[in-house]
UniProtKB/TrEMBL annotation:
Record field: transmembrane: 12-32
Key words of the record: Hydrolase, Membrane, Oxidoreductase, Peroxidase, Transmembrane, Transmembrane helix
Endpoints of the signal sequence: none
Top-level taxonomic group: Bacteria
GO molecular function: hydrolase activity
Region (Disordered): 369-400
InterPro entries recorded: AB_hydrolase, AB_hydrolase_1, AB_hydrolase_fold, Epox_hydrolase-like
Name under which the protein is recorded: Alpha/beta hydrolase
Natural source organism: Glycomyces tritici
Annotated AB hydrolase-1 domain residues: 85-342
Bias-annotated ranges (Basic residues): 382-400
Length: 400
């Protein structure tokens, strides 16, 4: 064998070794998360394994076009002529599925002669709604979308507004921008894991990461063509098992959350485009509606937060509750940023108790006389389901 042939054979051997090493490393990088995720899913005690999260109880499905031309996905549960409408507004990187259990609770609630209706929608750039036509968004944009949804599917009658995280911020801005409608119609509010101001000073890993995202990625997206976030989104879709493990670790306060809930949260996060993730960063960090809170004076109010929430830490909810005179504050033990999913029975019960206060204050006569009228939007009839009462029993601490 010639020296040239020998060098070539050695080169092929080295190349084969490198290729094999890369392939082996890639297999490990792909295989280990997949193995761990499957094993964790299999070992987790899951009381929600058969919950149809993709097919919740609904009465109608709408597409509402906002004044900015954004198609907004809206669903309702309960009779259209209900005495009281409960509007759910979800938060950052989630969608209406975060209120799955509370939607069920409203659909199944028996409040005597007072009927309830739930209205849920996906915020722009989340779930099945279209994105806002800009690189960067504001909470004011979300408040206007909320106004458009109410005008379309719940134009009349008393309301209870329920906001989680960024959804709570949306409600605060809505009260400021549409004060007359707010004062006339809103009879109760609930803020879950939300804040009125100061998130730009929170020194937790997730919030420091959000500030870095705002400083670095946002300027790039404002200068580079739209294909850049598309490529990032494709890579995120390929990282399913790793994303599932990270979600399990970061998004839940309980040491062993049900696998189906981890899958639900991971799916909501993954469906939120990078454009939306970055586009809302400044709005969340700059949010300050402290001066708006007096508008909520006198309303039955519920403020809930998990004691392990790293995105909107408990002190933010404490300050919010202190500013809402007479509100009920609940600190949920072993819960992170989405207590409505981790402890659905408790949160649904707290919400229904607040709704009972609303019903007692407005009286059945005024509620019926202001029942919502039919809307002109074409509907897709949803399946009707009957759900057995459900509650997951875990302790929570209530503070005045």
């Amino acid at each position: 064998m010639s020296e040239k042939q020998s060098r070539r054979r050695r080169g092929l051997a080295v190349a084969g070794g490198v290729t094999g090493g890369v392939a082996f490393g890639a297999a490990l990088a792909w295989g280990i998360p997949r193995y761990l995720a499957r094993r964790t899913r299999a070992s987790s005690v899951d009381p929600y394994a058969h919950e149809p999260f993709e097919l919740p109880p609904q009465r109608s499905v709408f597409t509402v076009e906002s004044r900015a031309g954004v198609p907004i996905h809206v669903e309702t549960a309960g009779p259209e002529d209900a005495d009281l409408t409960v509007v759910f507004v979800h938060g950052y990187m989630q969608d209406m599925a975060t209120f799955y259990f509370q939607r069920k609770a409203i659909a199944e609630a028996n409040r005597g002669d007072v009927s309830l209706r739930a209205v849920l929608y996906d915020q722009p750039g989340h779930g099945r709604s279209g994105p806002l036509p800009r690189t960067e968004y504001g909470i004011e944009d979300l408040a206007e979308v909320m106004h458009d949804v109410l005008t379309a599917v719940a134009p009349r009658g008393p309301l209870v507004l329920v906001g989680h995280s960024m959804g709570g911020m949306t409600i605060q801005v809505y009260a400021r921008l549409h004060e007359a409608d707010f004062r006339e119609r809103v009879k109760g509010v609930a803020f879950l894991s939300s804040s009125a101001a100061g998130l730009d000073t929170v020194e937790t890993k997730p919030m420091r990461a959000l500030r870095r995202l705002r400083r670095t990625v946002l300027p790039m997206l404002q200068q580079v063509a739209g294909w850049t976030p598309d490529l990032i989104d494709r890579s995120r879709l390929l990282a399913g098992d790793l994303g599932w493990l990270l979600t399990r670790k970061a998004a839940f306060g309980h040491i062993d959350p049900p696998a189906s809930l981890v899958t639900l949260v991971e799916r909501m996060n993954r469906r939120t485009s990078m454009q939306s993730i970055v586009g809302y960063a400044r709005a969340i960090l700059d949010h300050d509606e402290t001066a708006t809170l007096p508008l909520f004076k006198g309303l039955p109010a519920l403020v809930v937060v998990g004691d392990e929430d790293l995105l909107t830490p408990p002190e933010h909810s404490r300050r919010l509750a202190a500013a809402l005179e007479g509100s009920r504050f609940a600190l949920i033990a072993e819960a992170a940023h989405s207590p409505q999913l981790e402890y659905p029975g408790e949160i649904s019960q707290l919400l229904l108790e607040m709704i009972d206060k609303v019903v007692a204050e407005i009286g059945r006569g005024s509620a019926v006389s202001a029942a919502p009228e039919a809307t002109p939007f074409e509907r897709d009839p949803g399946r009707h389901r009957r759900w057995s009462p459900f509650s997951r029993h875990h302790g929570h601490r209530l503070e005045p």
